[in-house]
Design goal:
Elements (H helix, E strand, L loop, with lengths): L5 H8 L6 H13 L2 H8 L3 H15 L4 E2 L6 E2 L1 H25 L6 E6 L1 H6 L1 H11 L5 E6 L2 H9 L5 E6 L9 E14 L9 E2 L8 E4 L5 H12 L9 E4 L3 H9 L4 E5 L4 H6 L3 E5 L5 E8 L7 H14 L8
Parallel strand pairs: 3-4, 3-5, 7-11, 8-9, 8-10
Antiparallel strand pairs: 1-2, 5-12, 6-10, 6-11, 6-12
């Protein structure tokens, strides 16, 4: 069986490629001359915009933006890259359009959170591929719950699994509850946090490695901090990583602490590379749901995928239509 798992393969191998999103970012920043405006248009945080531009600059070995003025401008090298990027993206659209005329396999667009993608999806997909007799085209997207819900409502995504806090609005969507997961603070043994349960004041002097706004783990952390009269800014220092692999590497090196899904760092906890600890009074449980659009009708492929998910979590057999 041949399946195209382009996005998921790149994600799990931990290889960092110059994706078209980074080129789109440079084009938008160059067009508007303002990172704040580009952030609003692309629905990406300003630090993420800056990181994408820095990655492109490292990739090409050239400064692409002139940041000396009140706004930003494309440098000579930046204009060359942006112009070629426009051509490349147009070719990409033509290629995709051309391929759609010859592709006959069933397509399934699956969205999930990065934590689910790292901790659970590989084994689920192995089971699915062994059981499935068909060869569907599968496209995977990793995003925060809010954006996944928007994609489901606009039918960009047809199938999703994500973790979420209580009160998330899933009105109008088909939902099936799955076993949730547990959040924990983790740190390298190098930091010598000896107690398994400590007070929040005992960790505020550490650097917090966190996820971007909208991520479920950050949302739950913010709720807990607010309940204690604190905020993210109460930590001595906050460093945001878009990539969970890089975040875990930083924590493993003893650079700070993080609030992560226990499933995501299970391997590091088992080997002793990381140590978990809990903060007194913190709520650690997150819900997890399988969510589809309101008018979604399961095909044989999505039934098989759902059954693989249920088998993995040892949930009830699938009885949908």
């Amino acid at each position: 069986m041949i399946m195209r798992f382009v996005h998921i393969v790149l994600f799990f191998l931990g290889k960092y490629v110059m994706e078209s999103n980074y080129l789109k970012t440079l084009i938008v920043v160059g067009k508007y001359g303002n990172i704040t405006r580009a952030s609003e248009i692309l629905h990406v945080s300003q630090p993420a915009i800056s990181r994408r531009i820095k990655l492109l600059e490292d990739q090409f070995g050239q400064v692409l933006l002139d940041r000396s003025g009140t706004g930003v401008e494309l440098t000579a090298a930046g204009k060359i890259v942006a112009d070629k990027a426009v051509q490349m993206l147009e070719l990409e659209k033509e290629l995709i359009s051309g391929l759609t005329t010859v592709e006959t396999n069933e397509k399934l667009t699956f969205a999930c959170t990065p934590s689910f993608g790292i901790a659970h999806l590989p084994q689920i997909m192995r089971d699915f591929m062994l059981k499935s007799s068909a060869s569907p085209d599968l496209l995977f997207h990793f995003d925060v719950p809010r954006k996944i819900i928007a994609g489901l409502n606009s039918e960009i995504y047809c199938f999703s699994v994500f973790e979420h806090t209580e009160g998330l609005n899933l009105t109008g969507l088909q939902t099936i509850s799955l076993p949730g997961d547990e959040m924990v603070f983790v740190a390298s043994p190098k930091l010598e946090i000896s107690e398994e349960e400590i007070e929040i004041d005992d960790v505020l002097h550490h650097t917090l490695y966190g996820r971007h706004e909208g991520c479920c783990s950050r949302s739950l952390l913010e709720i807990n901090l607010q309940n204690n009269g604190l905020s993210i800014s109460s930590f001595e220092r906050l460093i945001i990583y878009d990539d969970l692999h890089l975040l875990i590497d930083a924590i493993s090196n003893g650079d700070g602490i993080a609030f992560l899904s226990k499933d995501v760092v299970a391997k590091e906890l088992a080997t002793g590379n990381l140590k978990e600890f809990k903060v007194a009074g913190f709520s650690l449980a997150r819900n997890r749901s399988l969510v589809t659009p309101s008018n979604f009708v399961h095909s044989n492929i999505t039934k098989q995928l759902t059954e693989s998910i249920f088998d993995y979590f040892k949930a009830q057999p699938f009885c949908g239509k």
